[in-house]
Write a structure and sequence with these properties.
Helix content is 36%, strand content 14%. It has 121 residues and is α+β, with helices and mostly antiparallel strands. It has one domain (3-120). Strands 1-2-3 form a 3-stranded antiparallel sheet. β1 and β2 (7-14) form a beta hairpin. The chain is globular and about 45 Å long. The two termini are 26 Å apart.
């Protein structure tokens, strides 16, 4: 994770910020769930490049209906929070990931990567 002035540099899409943005945030554990995502330097660079290319694209308010109506993909060119992160990390059908599901998938993927590395050692 990158830091500026002791605060975390975060990329996502936020309703209050009207869409995809870069933010410098105090990640107080009382307010945030922080999940470490294991990436290669190339994957991290690709994710940041995705966000840089999409900064300013609007928040996908309609896409939130996909949490209830699972076949609704939202609006093209608009992104909600977990959707933007999933897309930047290369997850297929990123619109399917509500925040809780995405957190569970990322945690599962991290455990699987550690187990695979242990088996290879």
């Amino acid at each position: 994770m990158a830091y500026e002035n002791g605060m975390a540099v975060c990329w996502s899409s936020a309703y209050l910020d009207k869409g995809v943005r870069r933010a410098v945030v105090n990640l107080d554990p009382a307010d945030w769930d922080v999940i470490d995502i294991v990436t290669t330097p190339e994957q991290e660079a690709a994710a940041i490049a995705w966000f840089e290319a999409h900064v300013g694209q609007p928040y996908d308010v309609a896409g939130l209906f996909g949490f209830v109506f699972r076949h609704y993909e939202g609006e093209k060119g608009k992104w909600f929070c977990s959707e933007s992160v999933a897309e930047a990390l290369g997850y297929a059908e990123s619109w399917r990931y509500d925040p809780n599901t995405f957190a569970a998938v990322v945690a599962h993927d991290a455990i699987r990567m550690v187990q695979t590395a242990q088996l290879a050692a």
